[in-house]
Write a structure and sequence with these properties.
With about 325 residues, the protein is α/β, with parallel strands linked by helices. The chain folds into two domains: about 240 residues, Spore Coat Polysaccharide Biosynthesis Protein SpsA, Chain A; about 70 residues. The protein is about 45% helix and about 15% strand. The strands form two sheets. The protein has a seven-stranded mixed beta sheet, sandwiched between helices. Strand 4, helix 2 and strand 5 form a beta-alpha-beta unit. Helix 9 runs antiparallel to helix 10. The chain is elongated, with a radius of gyration of 25 Å.
């Protein structure tokens, strides 16, 4: 299949994927700033714009660029699905040996791409950008981001200064294994580490936003915390959910036993009848909650086995095989 200037898909060296949403003022400057650094690498390349249901003239502008330059490809969504879906679409359609993701707001500097590739060539599978001198509002963007990055690093064990930086380079063979859902795009380095990827980061240039409006606010803090809970569950308990549900159920049943004993003590030694305290109701609620949690854990175990066996998915990943046919 021919795609770029007579080059086949297998010959593409670099795929740059750029999710865009209402960035009509930025798309031309971003495209123009990409050409020189990509040509500097000496590799064949493609630029993929993923329009996430923009309501301005962004898709028309992207199509106009693609008409002039066959190295530009455009994916247009029927509506707004979010950045994670746009990233996943870009990954699915990328043909390069290396996939580079970046924002379409002009704050990432394409001049950093050759540096990302140099580090990738040193044996790493993922090179993440670190906006060391971040040009965003300190109160609403930078400070919350620092707290979130520290928390994510602590919980995941993959220590990066800046998970929110979109400018990252991935080996195509690694990133193609990742499946993203919800708003999990910021956790891609963690997902790749689950597949055995070697992850590192380097400082990159960050520019202030000159055109357009930021799509992020303080409301994403709660989303990050909830996504982190999901990530922790997937990392530790994906193949053994009974430990989560069953553990909580055992705690509830244990609590019900304690409240029952306290209820008996009050009855036998302090002449306090059962109807004088809320303990009977609390005991029954804790016991029922515990039993239901354990049953949910058993159901989750069945679902996990169905998930793996119906799709012939392995619960492990092999790096190499020696002397096997």
């Amino acid at each position: 299949m021919q795609t770029l200037s007579g080059s086949s898909e297998s010959e593409i060296g670099i795929s740059v994927i750029i999710p865009i949403y209402n960035e009509v003022e930025n798309i031309d400057p971003v495209y123009e700033s990409l050409l020189a650094p990509l040509q500097q690498t000496g590799r064949t390349f493609e630029i993929i714009f993923i329009d996430d249901g923009s309501l301005d003239g962004t898709p028309e502008r992207a199509r106009a660029i693609a008409t002039k330059d066959k190295q530009v490809r455009v994916i247009e969504f029927v509506r707004n699905y979010g950045q994670t879906s746009a990233m996943m679409a870009g990954i699915d359609h990328a043909c390069g040996d290396v996939v580079i993701a970046m924002d379409g707001d002009g704050q990432n500097d394409p001049a950093d791409i050759p540096r990302l590739l140099d580090v990738l060539d040193q044996g790493f599978d993922v090179v993440s950008g670190w906006r060391k001198d971040r040009q965003d509002d300190m109160l609403t963007r930078t400070f919350p981001s620092r707290i979130a990055n520290a928390l994510i690093s602590k919980v995941s064990g993959v220590h990066l200064h800046d998970y929110g930086c979109s400018l990252k380079a991935y080996r195509g063979s690694i990133i193609k294994k990742v499946r993203l859902y919800g708003e999990m795009h910021r956790f891609i380095p963690i997902y790749t580490s689950w597949h055995g990827a070697k992850v590192t980061e380097i400082p990159v240039t960050h520019h202030p936003r000159l055109r357009g409006k930021s799509k992020y606010g303080l409301n994403r803090i709660a989303k990050v915390l909830l996504d982190l809970a999901v990530l922790r569950f997937l990392d530790r308990f994906l193949t053994k959910p009974i430990y989560v549900f069953g553990g909580f159920g055992m705690m509830c049943i244990g609590g019900s036993l304690l409240t029952f004993l306290w209820m008996l003590i009050l009855k036998l030694f302090f002449s306090t009848t059962f109807i004088q305290t809320p303990l009977p109701v609390l005991t029954a609620m804790l016991f029922c909650t515990g039993v239901l949690s354990i049953l949910m854990g058993l159901l989750a175990e069945l679902l996990v086995r169905t998930y793996h066996e119906s799709q012939d998915k392995r619960i492990y990943s092999v790096r190499t095989l020696t002397n096997f046919d």
